[in-house]
Fold:
Amino acid sequence: MPKRPTVYDVAERAGVSIATVSFTFRRPDKVKVSTREAVQAAAHALGYVPSANARGLARGRTGALGLYSFDYLLGSTEAACRVADRRRADATVVRLDVNEDLRLFPLYVDEVQRGVELECRRRGYALMIGAGGDANGEAVVADIAGRVDGLAVFPGTVPVEVLRHIARRIPVVELSEPSHDDSLNHVTVDNVAGMRSLTHHLITEHGLRDLNFVGALDSSDNRARFKGFRSALRAAGIRPPRAPSAPCGGQRERAAVVVGDLLERGALPDGFVCVTDQEALALMEALSEAGVELPREVAVTGFDGIVAGRVARPQLTTVRQPMELMGRAVVDILVDRLARPDEPPESRQLPVQVVFRESCGCPPR
Amino acid sequence: MPKRPTVYDVAERAGVSIATVSFTFRRPDKVKVSTREAVQAAAHALGYVPSANARGLARGRTGALGLYSFDYLLGSTEAACRVADRRRADATVVRLDVNEDLRLFPLYVDEVQRGVELECRRRGYALMIGAGGDANGEAVVADIAGRVDGLAVFPGTVPVEVLRHIARRIPVVELSEPSHDDSLNHVTVDNVAGMRSLTHHLITEHGLRDLNFVGALDSSDNRARFKGFRSALRAAGIRPPRAPSAPCGGQRERAAVVVGDLLERGALPDGFVCVTDQEALALMEALSEAGVELPREVAVTGFDGIVAGRVARPQLTTVRQPMELMGRAVVDILVDRLARPDEPPESRQLPVQVVFRESCGCPPR
DNA sequence: TTGAAAGCGCTAACAT
DNA sequence: ATGTTAGCGCTTTCAA
Structure:
């Protein structure tokens, strides 16, 4: 790789000053035609590509937004790496079943990310993507934060103190319900209403009364969903469980254990209301494998509306989040904050849509 | 937003020099404990986030890779924007059918991009994403090129001269068969073999002889696929068509026109071998709507292996590209070139897998 | 219309 | 172990 040409090289070759070169790129119309052509010719001949780093430095802003995400499917990364090792052309043909793939992609984060991408493009921003989940996640997020004008993060990916720290420097939006009311912007959905109306449906339409809530209450969103669940039960005069039942984190093996345990104790409820689609999908699979017929013997529902739920058998009843829209809203807020840095942080709550499919007992559609 | 603190601020507050601050961040273990703590405390108190721009400038490399992609579904962007306008919480509930969604996402580029993301993370690189399709695409790609150490592009998204230009500065890999043999690296698949073996299957297993190839020969990959198609026909003693039949670019309306025309002329072939899944899907839909029964009356096949083909009815027979792996290979090459800038450009060809599903006449699986 | 010069925030020798 | 000092490549007043 030859040394990268700079403004100086171009200036010298075009016989002008670096200021003129810079100016020519910024406002071509404000330069004499002859100089412009000379500069452009020189730039072209040299293979000049302006350094966005230097530009960003000089201007104080980079023109890029950042998205920090997370591999919620920890196991998958490892599997993917194994696959990656046989990447030569002469390697064994890779046999990943497409059904299998759908469990890994696209997930919730992927669809939100897509929204972010689309809106970034529309606004003329570049998008810097980073992800953690592993050890030095904190370093990574700081690294990204250092190269963008605004940052979006999925909840639970970055310690809140780190986020606050970053938020002192650039606008940050977190994709969750506002929990610790602070300097962060938020984009979220109406978790409570969504879960309440889903649960209400199970009770009134399908006559289910013994309902388990499956999922960890480790995020404000999950807690809101649990709240919606309890609220619907209470409204129906059913005493809601105090705590969720054991979550399996979307992992098949764990789901199998949970199901085996339940079966052994003869404690199968009327339905499992899961905090996410992934949780529900893993559970459904474990139930099926254990010989439980869905949804006849037990109903299962999810939350998110990911593709895999649409393709599963039975098709998964769920609460769909407007993921692309959420991604767009994120960018919208960030750009807005950039323009008006002194506005207080904003929280945007988007509506959800309950999608009745087969896994709750509704007929196929 | 308060003024962003810099090394100078931290240094002053910690009572050390800026070099020490920098060093403390780079090699915390090489600094006296007391100073380290002082610096970290100051940084924390100030909300200091190092500027990756300045760092990149000073170091001569950014630690980021770039991916420039493209909206192959031109119409969709517009539709998405319309949706984006009703982004307030009080807006009408958004009703996008999930089936509809799958036609837009995830597509080929999305799955490849995912591979790029995963591998970037594994290697500790940040990923800068940009996309064009609209007017100032050239500016966008230059912008991205200016902020990364290496760039990946999908074919047909950037004029080859621009690519060459950029390749003089940083390593570039194009996701296509090497066409113009130049300074670019390439990642591609065995298009010829894939299409040949798919076509061979149609001929020998299903006895189809009158086959149309659908798609534009506007890329080296597409030409290779056409070549594979012809080669299989020739091997079977069938005279291959000289040119493909009219492509519809994956657009429903156009597909409907093409089908209507064919039907009118009574010129329905035994099968349509489409250059991509999107092409095939649009065609299948048009055929179904026109009352043609698939695959009994006519077979349809695709190429790529996108999710939508798996979910379509009948399920689409196709040639699956190892998209995630391709994305990973891209990063692999880029990182390699970065380490050894003087190596000649590399081309990596990955194997494909023919997936027999229903649309060619095979039984459901 | 163009040039000179002062940074932007950080790193990396080299000194101490 | 820490400080000094040049830049890195570009933008941007301010002059000319």
